[in-house]
Amino acid sequence: MKFMKLGSKPEAFQVDGKCIRHVTSDLATDIIIKVGDLKFYLHKFPLLSKSNHMQKLVQKASEDNCDEINMVDFPGGPNAFEICAKFCYGMAVTLNAYNVVAARCAAEYLEMTEDVDRVFLNSSIFHSWKDSIIVLRTAKSLLPWSENLKIVGRCIDSIASKTSVDPANITWSYTYNRKLSVQDKIVGDSMKLQEKIESVPKDWWVEDICELEIDLYKRVMTAVKSKGRMDGAVIGEALKTYAVRWLPDSVDALVSGVHSWRNKLLVETIACLLPSDNGVGCSCSFLLKLLKVAVLAGIDDSSKEDLVKRISLKLHEASVKDLLIPARSPQTTLYDVGMVQSVVNQYMTHEQRSQDVEPGKSAGFVLGHGSLLSVGKLIDGYLGEIAHDPNLSLTSFIDLSCSVSELARPVHDGLYKAIDIYLKEHPSLTKAERKKICGLMDVKKLTMEASMHAAQNDRLPLRVVVQVLFFEQVKAASRAQSRNSDARTTCVSKMSPDEEWDKTMGEDCRSLKKKMSEVETNEDGGQKNSKMGKKKSRNSKSGVQLLPSRSRRIFDKLWVVGVGKGHVENRSSETSGSSQSPSSAVVVRDNTTKSSGVPSRHRRHSVS
Q: Low complexity: which segments have biased composition (predicted)?
């Protein structure tokens, strides 16, 4: 810190109680000056020789026959007046970054005849990085004097100019307690030890200005951006550091009456300072944290809309935890699902525009397929989290699920998990509602593990379970057929998935679909009394065998159909019994081809 010493006489000011200051001298004092709560017993001559304003005040006091002068609204208060008084007496005074602004404003008020304070500011303070920041902070309490004297403006310009200096030319001290950025680490790894010590990161300045009040910080950052030489990523890092420094961690602190206004102003300020680079300069996690505070603090809609737009450009970088934005009253849900819905809608709008861009033309925002898959996985994970909320409406769940493109969900395991959680947490759903929510997923896109779980899931409508078992049987038959025919495998490998499905499984699907229609049952489990089908058959007998669950019974029937295609004839009648009815059974006749006069064998299967 730079300083300037003035005067050479020893200290002669004495303290007499809490409210009196006097000068030790052989001469009696002849004037009393009151500044704030303090009274200074001084001599007229030293003051009048260096202060034009004091000459006017003393003259007026003499005319009023009064020996006490009351200085109202003196800039800097008693401490600043004491510095000026000591200077008038020629006593030793030390000016530094903490008191020079007060001394400068007091000197202006007193109309001092010497301008050593101004010289100190111009020659030392404005050339020092940390002193400029200290002076700017102290100038806050001395408004409007410090503003009118252009101290604030010159400090801001000095700070902004130094942030634009090439890091290689930084020779002054600065505060840096954060980890190096990835780029700086890469550069640092290739340096020698001495070079690493002397290297300066691009964002070396962001921590020092974090101590500024919001309004001054905004002016400094505006000046930094206006110079046009600062990278957007560094601007984003500066805003993030400031937000971490001042925003509270707890939700209660964010919405408390004491700090709510300040937090609202802080978020609005940071939002308006974000770099105009389509969100490149700020991480999606940071932007979502700002949006979370914006929702809780209740900032204006325009700022929230701007944040939503920026987040949508980088949604693929977010995590499920980032999206869990607490809801404000009067919402009854735990999280603000509507806000996330807005972000996803914006994202899909950008995605659609990127697809509509003509080849050869540059696009400001073009998403890769990988980012689209990331968003699909993200939203499925988010649905799984909010599904636990008992107050989450079915409409909100369905709308958010449908807002994601089908291309984002090649596999529906995550969606199935979210649906299963919602069904578990909302047992009062009607049959129509359960059918509607289950209609969101495509059972053909479930993995084997998810299909096995769904086949045993009593919360799913029975028709969905039948579909799961049917398509798993089709997949199994497809795999078996592929293994048995190398030539066919080679041919199939050259086809698209849809062509492969139609080519290899057309006949099996037609047969299995016919049999699936025979085992459709009521979604509520059916009636306890089921119908027994009895069919006649040549050279065969009928029998009954009971199986433990509805899924096993349905699977066994489909298995008979799939394995015995072309050799098995199923003539069972449609059943409507529930999975809990032990008497529900159907007779199935399995005729094998006769050979050398040997009669066909008979098997009995229970399927319902």
A: 573-584
